[in-house]
Amino acid sequence: MHPGRMTETLSVRALNRATLARQLLLAREPLPVTEAVGRLLGMQAQEPKPPFLGLWTRLDGFQASDLNEALRDRSLVRATMMRATLHLMTSADYTAFRTTMQPMLDGALKVLGDRAKGMDLEKVVPAARALLGQGPRTFNEIRALLQEQFPNVNDRALGYAVRLCVPLAMVPTQDRWGFSRTSQFTLADDWLGAPVADDPALEELMLRYLAAYGPASAADAQTWSGLPDSGAALERLRPGLHVYNDGRGRELFDLPDAPRPGEDVQAPPRFLPEFDSLVLAHADRRRVIADAHRPLLTTKNLRVRAVFLWDGFAQGIWETEYKRKVATLRLRPFDPLPKAALEELTHEGESLLRFLEPDAKETIVTIADD
């Protein structure tokens, strides 16, 4: 922005369209899965299934086998990253940015409180690396073996410390959604054939974040990453960025050449899976979901519900059921939907059910009676 020039204000709808464009949600793109995950800068993946649905809703012709193959050839990896949660990442991004995440991961250890009593990370981390250097192990095995070496330390604390302080990769299986219920973990550098970068790359990470989720504020970037230094990095990058206003007095940073479609660009109906990063990537989430509806997004046990988009915004949650070869999709709108929305969502929902349950003899899309 030049001195004396008024800062342009971006409406919620303008932010919506800009973010949808970068999140591959204005049109299904004909991209390889690894390139798509790179464009998205990862996909939240506490559970194995949601990234499959998230890619189906974004990519033209996506098949579950595409993601499974990328996991098995190790171009994609499921590992702990942003906000100390499991993410699906490209192997290149994981090795580039894992060290950048370490200060946040170290801070997450504080949640252990008294359970960390007696734990010496300078001893636990090498011990864990030695155990995992022998081959992949489940966390039940890791905790039990570490407790033998550190009998006076809480076993859960030992396991949590290993998750956060040792770069690990989850080992994919032949299961439909890529991983078993009791997944094995292994050392990431062994699995990927490359060490994680020695030096943090926070500024590069912030540029990639803006490419995937911008325009965004410093608070948005910190919410997505969990890194408190995100705002300082954006300040350092300011000379090369465009700066906007969000209408509430907050600055929004963006890449000069990033897509910012007009507000009138049509947004197709889309079904997002549980834990989709789109609904978690900003402090101010009005670009995706109204403030009044945001409390409905998360369950009491902190599950992030699957939402459907119509006209670009989250208009309700959805769930499926499969019984006796009948696949049912239930929509739970936040507010009554117009007829056109129901027709469009029904058509898209039937396609979703055919992806989820290819053996179904019947597919049904219905509005839940609550």
TrEMBL record:
<keyword id="KW-0238">DNA-binding</keyword>
<dbReference type="InterPro" id="IPR009351">
    <property type="entry name" value="AlkZ-like"/>
</dbReference>
<dbReference type="Pfam" id="PF06224">
    <property type="entry name" value="AlkZ-like"/>
</dbReference>
<protein>
    <submittedName>
        <fullName>Winged helix DNA-binding domain-containing protein</fullName>
    </submittedName>
</protein>
<dbReference type="GO" id="GO:0003677">
    <property type="term" value="F:DNA binding"/>
</dbReference>
